[in-house]
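TASK: fixed-backbone design
INPUT:
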């Protein structure tokens, strides 16, 4: 076939795909082509959504070529590759991102304008792929983006859920969930592949002879489901394009159709295995920082890692390297414990299938895996009952027992006679029922374990894995502080600010070298610059105002202080504290004279975020916010002094509109509970100040931008345990202001009080676990500081500029660079840079 390669190359160059002309006429030609050929529609039947799709196809063409070149080059050069295993990728929309990455937005803008459409309207037609819950999934997306921008040979592996995170609406103040049918319309950003692996479940383990006459354990089962690959291109720079491979479940052979059953009239039976297969990857579990422990979820996890590991092993074998080379060619990063079964899965393949000795296999496994922990909250730590694991994955359960035994023997060697220690570090928890502690399995099977912010990594070592750090030594446990993509979260989301920064710094180099933002600092006190800076903020607030009008039917004044808290609804994130503070503010405003009231800057308090459908208390907080909004927004005495907004269906594309429009955003978790937070970084890089606790990455943000440019308050992480202890024995003495707020709720000021009882009980009978009362006074005072500063326009603007200037550290490029050098031991492939021709 080789003799025809040239001919193929030439043919491709002549094809419409290779037409890289970016003049308006060529782009219009490609849009019109796709309208007719890909969508099978004509110009006589134009809806925005169809034009969006034709446009997306046209853009995807350009990406495809980059994708093919990049992946071909890897196949040829065979560098060490990184595989980022994540059950969630919260990618957000693709079109705008792709156009900007390939510098084609202006050209396309003109092209669609000439065809009678506004690009902004078309961009709004794209559905968000919401294959993630929150921070963890969005981090994975920012990391894929960074790897692509850095030319790093990293692939993401994940699941292609038929239904993403549920869509949220608010009815009578309550959250209502609807399925997120994101594939309803054709999605032009994924490419189905003819790549399939069978994944089995249940069954039994038998002893068999292998070819060499050795007896091996063998796992057999009739219950198989097929994984098929869908590739999602990740636009990089300079012709480089990364990849996320998502697995969808399909019936195994013959499409799962049982013809015999059909012929006998057993119609349900005839499609039974089809239903099974469909269900497996049908829906993303909607829990954030919480494990629900359903068997189907365990099957999703195994399906995901089995297909991914098979794919990677297959790719490795293509080069006929010895197995000992595996860790030099492959790095697996576990995005939390969800993919931890990849560890026993690789061990199983190496020992049972490939015939390696146990210890050799284990050496390979542990040099290949690394593990990122994202939380210390006990309710989020995955544990699977042994009886479930034994049933679904009998061979893996045996392997885990053996791994645990050998591990505990070594611990015993190092610390003889410490039975308590053995109990504490055992991968098997001796409870009833006995459970597999997935985080421990991940630690034992990995060569490196990292937390996601400095404080969090400290707590990981001191609390979660203390015994392990004593056994392994400190080097295994490191910190890599999270980062965000400056491309999506500043360059794309805030064009006004992007242009001002580029103009001021003289080029766009800052995007790829974020610490250059520091060069903005000298302009912080420049009045003219401040005016330009704040004019952009104002324009972004106006844009959000329109969104609030369309979405909530509420008119708010863009000159007011925009105070924003958008994130998953969770008790530890304390949206409850925020809304209680709002009620306090409302009451204070009511008691003021009209003159005094006018001296307080008007505020718009904006909330957004989904609650897990089973999380009753979090859902009640949503109800309380909406009830308070009803009263406050319609109180004539309050007028525009205070408005409360709950934006439904918070997601990535909404975040892109909200983040650039904040004056203040709140990151007020109980100290020690928020591993990192990443939206805090997004707000600050866009010149938004933050009001926050001394928690997660807030601490490092403070260190980078300076104490004067951030409003911190509240209990410190190392005080929390003592306070909880005291509360347990002496009860909670509620803050006086807080007590009056609760009294107002219970007096029915915000409607039927009884529904809020379970919520209020979390403060009183519940022992105020999240320290809302403890922090209430400091919170109110800090809010008053915010008011005071907002009245000093120049001082505020100066801080806003210093915020952006100090954020260079928080680029996901920096994070990925650290993962690459400290954990994966891969360098940016020098191969990438511009040399995109692999026709040779
Ligand atoms: C952590 F354990 N996170 C979990 C989880 O189940 N889901 C999730 O989103 C988050 C943390 O809460 C975080 O602090 C962190 O920044 C993020 O993972 C990425 O590391 C919220 O932003």
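OUTPUT:
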């Amino acid at each position: 076939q080789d003799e025809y390669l040239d001919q193929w190359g030439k043919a491709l160059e002549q094809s419409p795909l290779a037409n890289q002309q970016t003049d308006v006429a060529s782009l219009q030609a490609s849009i019109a082509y796709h309208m007719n050929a890909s969508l099978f529609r004509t110009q006589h039947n134009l809806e925005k959504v169809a034009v969006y799709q034709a446009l997306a196809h046209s853009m995807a063409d350009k990406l495809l070529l980059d994708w093919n070149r990049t992946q071909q080059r890897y196949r040829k050069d065979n560098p060490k590759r990184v595989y980022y295993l994540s059950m969630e990728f919260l990618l957000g929309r693709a079109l705008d991102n792709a156009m900007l990455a390939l510098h084609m937005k202006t050209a396309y803008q003109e092209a669609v304008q000439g065809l009678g459409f506004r690009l902004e309207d078309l961009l709004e037609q794209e559905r968000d792929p919401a294959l993630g819950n929150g921070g963890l999934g969005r981090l994975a997306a920012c990391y894929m983006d960074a790897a692509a921008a850095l030319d790093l040979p990293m692939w993401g592996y994940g699941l292609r859920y038929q239904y993403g995170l549920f869509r949220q609406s608010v009815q009578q103040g309550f959250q209502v969930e609807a399925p997120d049918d994101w594939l309803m319309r054709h999605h032009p950003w994924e490419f189905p592949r003819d790549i399939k692996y069978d994944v089995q479940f249940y069954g039994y383990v038998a002893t068999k002879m292998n070819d060499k006459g050795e007896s091996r354990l063998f796992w057999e089962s009739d219950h198989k489901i097929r994984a098929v690959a869908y590739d999602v291109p990740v636009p990089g720079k300079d012709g480089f394009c990364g990849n996320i491979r998502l697995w969808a479940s399909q019936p195994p052979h013959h499409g799962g159709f049982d013809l015999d059953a059909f012929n006998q009239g057993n119609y349900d039976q005839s499609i039974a295995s089809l239903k099974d297969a469909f269900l497996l990857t049908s829906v993303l579990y909607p829990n954030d920082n919480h494990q629900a422990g359903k068997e189907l979820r365990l099957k999703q996890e195994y399906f995901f890692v089995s297909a991914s590991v098979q794919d990677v092993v297959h790719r490795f074998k293509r080069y006929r390297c010895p197995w000992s080379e595996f860790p030099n060619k492959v790095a697996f990063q576990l995005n939390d414990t969800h993919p931890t079964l990849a560890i026993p899965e690789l061990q199983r393949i190496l020992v049972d299938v490939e015939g390696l000795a146990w210890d050799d296999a284990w050496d390979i496994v542990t040099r290949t895996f690394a593990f990122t922990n994202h939380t210390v909250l006990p309710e989020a730590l995955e544990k699977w009952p042994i009886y479930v694991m034994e049933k679904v994955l009998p061979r893996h359960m045996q392997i885990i027992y053996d791994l645990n035994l050998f591990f505990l023997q070594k611990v015993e060697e190092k610390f003889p006679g410490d039975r308590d220690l053995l109990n504490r570090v055992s991968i098997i928890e001796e409870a009833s029922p006995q459970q597999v502690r997935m985080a421990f399995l991940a630690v034992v099977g990995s060569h490196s374990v990292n937390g996601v912010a400095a404080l969090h990594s400290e707590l990981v070592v001191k609390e979660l894995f203390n015994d392990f750090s004593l056994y392994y030594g400190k080097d295994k446990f490191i910190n890599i502080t999270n980062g965000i993509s400056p491309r999506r979260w500043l360059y794309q989301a805030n064009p006004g600010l992007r242009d001002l920064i580029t103009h001021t710094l003289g080029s766009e180099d800052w995007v790829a070298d974020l610490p250059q933002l520091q060069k903005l600092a000298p302009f912080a006190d420049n009045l003219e610059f401040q005016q330009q800076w704040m004019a952009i903020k104002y324009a972004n607030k106006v844009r959000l105002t329109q969104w609030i009008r369309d979405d909530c039917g509420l008119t708010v004044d863009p000159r007011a202080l925009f105070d924003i808290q958008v994130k998953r609804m969770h008790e530890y994130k304390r949206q409850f504290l925020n809304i209680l503070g709002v009620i306090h503010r409302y009451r204070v405003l009511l008691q003021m004279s009209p003159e005094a009231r006018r001296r307080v800057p008007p505020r718009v308090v904006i909330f957004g975020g989904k609650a897990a459908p089973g999380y009753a208390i979090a859902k009640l907080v949503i109800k309380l916010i909406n009830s308070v909004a009803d009263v406050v927004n319609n109180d004539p005495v309050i007028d525009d002094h205070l408005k409360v907004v709950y934006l439904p269906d918070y997601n990535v594309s909404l975040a892109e509109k909200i983040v650039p429009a904040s004056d203040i955003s709140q990151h007020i978790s109980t100290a020690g509970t928020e591993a990192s937070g990443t939206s805090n970084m997004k707000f600050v890089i866009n010149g938004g100040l933050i009001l926050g606790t001394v928690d997660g990455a807030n601490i490092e943000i403070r260190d980078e931008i300076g104490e004067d440019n951030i409003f911190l308050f509240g209990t410190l992480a190392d005080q929390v345990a003592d306070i909880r202890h005291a509360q347990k024995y002496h009860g909670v003495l509620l803050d006086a202001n807080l007590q009056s707020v609760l009294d107002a709720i219970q007096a029915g000021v915000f409607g039927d009080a009884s529904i809020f009882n379970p919520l209020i009980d979390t403060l009183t009978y519940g022992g105020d676990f999240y320290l809302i009362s403890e922090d209430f006074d400091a919170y109110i005072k800090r809010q008053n500081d915010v008011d005071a500063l907002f009245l000093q326009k120049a001082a505020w603007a100066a801080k806003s500029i210093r915020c952006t200037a100090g954020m260079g550290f928080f680029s996901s490029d920096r994070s990925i660079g650290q993962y690459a050098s400290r954990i994966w031991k891969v360098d940016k492939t020098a191969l990438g840079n511009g040399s995109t021709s692999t026709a040779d």
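COMMENT: Residues 133-136, 139, 288-289, 336, 374-375, 380, 452, 482, 674-678, 696 surround GP0 (CB under 6 Å).
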